[in-house]
């Protein structure tokens, strides 16, 4: 058996979206490198990986118990159940254990006691930064958000303390750890990926049809994603006489709905599309993509907008690989005036919009999901060799 094989675990379905999708490409990268000893998950489509490597743990609660639970309580119970279940799998021959944050404190502890190298993936900012930023998104519109459960915070802090290496998707996330006093030199930045550019409709740069300027937002329509300042920016632009339309592709959460229903903005200028499973078509014809989020790890939707060649306005808190004035315009979270000014700038300067879109497409081109999987495999291989964080990061960065 390879010296670097691992138990890779995540309390999610690998054929779903979000973290399940990210974990699928990590697991595939490990498998292709011969490093995946076993996969623990909630589910995975048959045929993606050999069945003999996969252990499934669906989480089932009686419907009468699920309905009264908040989302936080549901995911807490799901992760607790998964951590308890996978502990029996930690006692195996694989010298590495790789888990996801909030799902594995006890399993990490057992793996460490067994002398294994332990790796943790954190897809968002440090739990304390995440709590603060989400709270700020609510306070700016006069809403007190439900705080992150203390038990979830404690689980995450335990994991940060135990793990030998923590894989994060952006420099923004890395800084959030440092700002919260994480003194251990064990953070590895591995950005996410995007489907090959050949799978994305090619934008017709310098060709824009007549009609309103088309803005696009993709993601959950929630306070965290900055939709309130975005809608306020639409009002500012409308008052300036700008001819535009904002398409919002995403499910509107209950709290945001209450705010939006009483918010003053030109409703005939905003179209709520609900969930759009394949937004590539919208992205490739948008005049600009706007994603003014308060908190992300490294938002997948920013990679997708870049692949579609859409000029992008976002925040540093998106954790995007796009750089200010090079592949995107970055604005402060919560600043409706700054969003409106950035949109106006793109409307007034089509050449700048074209340059940003072309540069974004070129910037994101190397960031394939295959590269992401290969980088995760390299982290495992180098961790098994005992290399320090700086050397692992150097070799990861050299893979672009």
Structure commentary:
With 400 residues, this protein is of the alpha/beta class. It is built from 15 helices and 13 strands. The protein has helices at 19-32, 63-66, 71-90, 105-113, 127-139, 150-162, 171-179, 227-239, 254-262, 280-285, 300-307, 336-348, 350-364, 369-384, 389-397; strands at residues 6-9, 36-41, 54-56, 96-100, 117-121, 165-168, 187-189, 213-218, 244-249, 270-274, 288-291, 312-314, 329-330. The strands form two sheets. The chain has a seven-stranded parallel sheet with strand order 3-2-1-4-5-6-7, with helices on both faces. Helix 4 runs parallel beside helix 6. The longest helix is centred in the first third of the chain and has 20 residues, at 71-90. It is globular and about 65 Å long. It starts with 5 loop residues before the first strand and ends with a helix. The mean pLDDT is 93.
Structural class: alpha/beta
Which whole number gives the mean pLDDT? 93
**How many β strands by DSSP?**
13
Strand proportion: 5-15%
Helix share, percent: 40-55%
Unreliable runs, pLDDT <50, ≥5 residues? none
Tell me the major beta sheet. 7 strands, parallel
SSE series: EHEEHHEHEHHEHEEHEHEHEHEEHHHH
Oligomer: single chain
Distance between the termini: 30 Å
Query: C-alpha Rg, in Å?
Result: 22 Å
Total number of helices: 15
Which strand order does the major sheet show? 3-2-1-4-5-6-7
């Amino acid at each position: 058996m390879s010296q670097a094989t691992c138990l890779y675990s995540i309390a999610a379905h690998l054929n779903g979206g979000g973290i399940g999708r990210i974990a699928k490409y990590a697991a595939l990268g490990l498998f292709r490198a011969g490093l995946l000893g076993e996969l623990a998950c909630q589910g995975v489509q048959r045929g993606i990986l050999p069945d003999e490597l996969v252990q499934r743990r669906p989480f089932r609660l009686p419907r009468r118990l699920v309905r009264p639970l908040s989302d936080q309580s549901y995911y807490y119970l799901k992760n607790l159940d998964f951590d308890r279940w996978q502990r029996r799998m930690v006692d195996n021959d694989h010298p590495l254990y790789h888990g996801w944050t909030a799902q594995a404190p006890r399993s990490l502890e057992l793996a460490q006691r067994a002398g294994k190298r332990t790796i943790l993936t954190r897809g968002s900012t440090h739990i304390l930064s995440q709590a603060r930023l989400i709270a700020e998104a609510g306070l700016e519109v006069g809403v007190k958000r439900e705080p992150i459960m203390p038990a979830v915070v404690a689980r995450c802090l335990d994991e940060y303390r135990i793990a030998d290496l923590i894989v994060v998707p952006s420099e923004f996330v890395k800084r959030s750890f440092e700002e919260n006093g994480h003194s251990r030199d064990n953070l590895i930045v591995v950005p996410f990926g995007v489907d090959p550019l050949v799978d994305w409709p090619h934008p017709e740069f310098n060709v824009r049809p007549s009609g309103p300027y088309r803005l696009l937002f993709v993601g959950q329509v929630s306070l965290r994603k900055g939709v309130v300042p975005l809608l306020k920016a639409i009002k500012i632009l409308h008052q300036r006489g700008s001819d535009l339309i904002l398409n919002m592709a995403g499910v509107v959460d209950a709290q945001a709905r209450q705010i939006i229903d009483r918010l003053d903005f030109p409703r005939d200028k905003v179209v709520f599309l609900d969930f759009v499973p394949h937004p590539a078509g919208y992205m490739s014809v948008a005049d600009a993509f706007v994603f003014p989020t308060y908190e992300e790890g490294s938002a997948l939707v920013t990679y997708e907008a870049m692949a579609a060649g859409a000029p992008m306005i976002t925040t540093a808190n998106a954790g995007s690989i796009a750089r200010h004035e090079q592949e995107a315009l970055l604005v402060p979270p919560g600043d409706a005036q700054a969003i409106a000014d950035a949109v106006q700038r793109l409307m007034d300067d089509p050449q700048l919009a074209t340059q940003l879109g072309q540069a974004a497409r070129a910037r994101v081109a190397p960031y394939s999901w295959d590269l992401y999987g290969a980088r995760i495999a390299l982290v495992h291989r180098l961790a098994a060799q005992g290399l320090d964080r700086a050397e692992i990061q150097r070799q990861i960065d050299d893979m672009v």
